[in-house]
Design goal:
By secondary structure, this protein is an alpha+beta fold. Helices cover 22% and strands 25% of the residues. The chain is built from 4 helices and 11 strands; from the N terminus they run H-E-E-E-E-E-H-E-H-E-E-E-E-E-H.
């Protein structure tokens, strides 16, 4: 989304800071977007037309200045290069992405309110971000909202959607919460889902599923009186 009445040349990505240098104040703000990124790299491993940014500055021309970015905890853009010119992006500069704005923005609410329900919502609406997800597992009572809220931009205004996992047809993915263990640690995380409402499994889960399938096959062979070692 680029206005046609700009009177000054826009800066390049090399001239712009990569973030606003605001530190995150909880672990989830780093862990959860990165988990979604690593999961998406598996789900879309054969695609090169998407980019998922984590705590990265998004520069645009719909705010107070092209030099003032918005920095989502995570965001997904479609119909862009997976790696810009074969290199890593320092920031996401809309006017260097053929005007493509993120399709999904993710904000994780922390102890310090960051304007997720008002200021940032207005910024994303003006920018034209189709889906806006606010994940608030700890402070939702304080903020008088639900822990998981996803909004869709309709007629330039966000409308709260219902259902979880929530299917985003324009992206071809659903998103929702799931409680699982990471080693000895139990935690709730965000997952991508398919059109049938099934989770796209993480790499460690895929390995475990394959191990269990092998074990079941070996058990069936033994039940048939076949020693699996004789087949090697």
């Amino acid at each position: 989304m680029l206005p046609s009445d700009l009177t000054h040349p826009l800066p390049t990505s090399h001239e712009l800071p990569s973030s606003d240098d605001t530190p995150v104040d909880n672990e989830d703000q780093n862990f959860l977007p990165n988990f979604l990124l690593f999961l998406l790299e598996s789900v879309w491993k054969h695609r090169v037309d998407w980019f998922f940014g984590v705590d990265m500055a998004v520069y645009h021309t719909t705010g107070v200045s092209p030099y003032v970015p918005v920095v989502p905890d995570g965001f997904l853009s479609l119909a862009v290069e997976r790696r810009k010119g074969g290199k890593s992006r320092r920031s996401y500069v809309v006017w260097e992405e053929n005007g493509v704005v993120p399709t999904l923005a993710l904000e994780i609410v922390s102890a310090t309110p960051g304007g997720e329900y008002d200021e940032k919502m207005q910024i994303y609406a003006r920018l034209g971000v189709l889906y806006y997800l606010i994940y608030n597992p700890e402070f939702w009572r304080r903020d008088q909202h639900q822990p998981f809220e996803i909004y869709k931009l309709v007629d330039n205004a966000y409308q709260l959607q219902i259902g979880e996992p929530y299917w985003m047809a324009e992206i071809g993915l659903g998103i929702g919460r799931y409680h699982r263990s990471f080693g000895e640690i139990e935690r709730e995380v965000l997952y991508w889902y398919d059109g049938q409402g099934d989770r796209h499994l993480a790499a460690d889960e895929q390995v475990e599923v394959e191990r269990q399938e092998r074990e079941r096959l070996l058990e069936r062979l033994r039940a048939m009186g076949i020693n699996p070692e004789d087949l090697q």
